Amino acid sequence: MNKLTGYISLALILVSGKSFSQDSKSINLRAFIGADSVTYTREVDQFGNFPKEAKALLDQFSINGYYRFVGNYRELSKAYEVNKNNPNNLFIGDDSQIPQLMMNISGSVAPNTSFGTDLFIWSPMTGMGQAENVKGLNLGISLYGSYASSLGDFNIRAGGINWYALSAMTFQANKGYNRYSIFERNPWDPNTKNIEDRYTTFYNSGAINQDERWGQQAFQGLIVEGARMPHGLSGSFMYGKTQLNGGLSPLPNNSVGGKLRKDYGMNFISLNTFNNISFKDSSQKDRIGFNIATLEFKNIFGAYKINGEIGMGRYFVQNSNQPWGEAISIKVARDLFAKFPTELHLYRISPHVINNSATFINSSIDVSVLSNASSVQPVLPAVASGMMPIGQLINNRQGIDLNAQINIGRLKSSIGWSVSSELQSVSSKITYSHPINSLALAHFWRWDFPSNVGPYNNLSKIYRTVYETLELTDVDPISKLPTFKKHFNAIEWNAKYQNRIFNKPCYFFYLGQFSSAQTNFSPITVFSEKALLRTYYHQLEGYMKVSNNLVWSNYLGFERILANYQSKTDDVSARPKNQTGYSIATGLDIRMSKGAGLYLRQRWMNYKDANFSKDAYQGFETTVEIKIFF
């Protein structure tokens, strides 16, 4: 009877699907038949009081990103004409075309296939409606994929916005020599694990933490990469648009480029190319573009490291192809002493070489603007003969840079010396910047990047800064060009010192830049009126770690800019430019949590040109930033 009861119980359990014990993957059935027991196990999905669980559709899935709040208040007691009707200005948001909320969504559908997309929320509130919701190339959905085989590892990126770099002369952003002020935070600066990491990193290595965009350009389209291919080969191919030759425009503007690289030991050699063609309208009659091809290499010979890039480039307008020109950049580095690394840089870039996606700036060819889907933007903007920081290359220029790092105890110094000259006299203008109050000055013009603005129509805004144009009057009456080639000199000194005050870690940074432009060659910066233009910049910064969650930041800036009588003078004073600028600032870096930071900045500024009476402003600016990573 007991055995019969046991068999009946077992049958009922199998029919009903219930058990004495169960988990998500199995049913354990135990029927007692007399003194014996029999266990049956059946693999099933969850059931009964445990609802079914759908199998995962993706192998992996993740969401991360950041939220950034920026608020800015400005009050001016002296203002340019553009600000006189609004001397007190409260602004919420970032007018650098950076979104407040960025979400990176990624996942994988198979071990060798992944995808990703970037979504953002950006509310500029300018009253432009739907048109203001799309800016530049910071938008899109990207598909990422990979495939590993015996022939190599292959990756693909399609659509969206991809930050990428080929080489300095083809497709890359300038990194410079890490000599700059770090008081003002950039939109791409991350929160750091320790609140003082931003300053200790700059002190120890001369650099600060940056996100993936550092040194790379935005590209929209298709990128295919191959790595670990036979014989040490690797390469890439890219087809699409950049922000300066098409952006989101529906016109058939396009760029195509790529490289084939051969690695041998610690050295490599690479063939690179980048090409562009853009049209003014859908008729495809008015076209403009450029071609460039280079050979890039790196070789280590004992204590010497030699790397460089040599190539040829040209530009074309309509059906007229301009001559090819040379593009040469060679660097030789060696540690002369244990704490004295030194680098010698020689370069020469023809005025016929133009590439608005490379590290060098166009100063030779003034090209008309092309219409973008959302605005009118210059495709190849000329900046005349620019006085640039050491390391920033310009076409129509040849020169030598010498950079060295000298460490003596707690004092670390980065020193740069540069001498260069034009290859042809193609411009009667010189451009220079105002780094002391550059960000505050850029805020005078929100959202847009206008040219030839300001009280004397000689200021032009670019990303987060403004440059000024000086016109020369010593020119040929017919060609309106100088009868001489301009020569340039620069000296830079970045000193860094670390100590403790009241037993609190403190960091002090000084950046001095002394530059000149003149009619004749000079081995060093010209400090007399023989220079067409002289610029002297001094920036002193101090940071104290008050606690594990607080850093006190301070800044002092002074600039002096002088032109001689070979440049345009004021109609009233009959004198050339004589400019003086001051800036005093303080702030706090506050760590609110592991992924959240609060950053406060207060700046007082005073600037005037003693000979151009309208060129003056005075006031203060307050900035509040909250950045949260998740």
Keywords:
630 residues, Maltoporin, Chain A, 22-stranded antiparallel beta barrel, 53% strand
Please explain how this structure is put together:
- With 630 residues, this protein is mostly beta strands.
- The chain folds into two domains: 2-43, no CATH class; 60-629, Maltoporin, Chain A (Beta Barrel), CATH 2.40.170.
- The protein has helices at 2-16, 197-205, 438-442, and strands spanning 21-22, 26-33, 36-43, 60-78, 88-92, 101-110, 113-121, 141-149, 152-164, 217-229, 233-242, 254-264, 267-279, 287-301, 304-317, 320-321, 325-337, 340-349, 370-371, 376-377, 385-386, 397-408, 411-422, 429-433, 459-462, 465-471, 487-501, 504-518, 531-547, 550-563, 578-593, 596-609, 616-629.
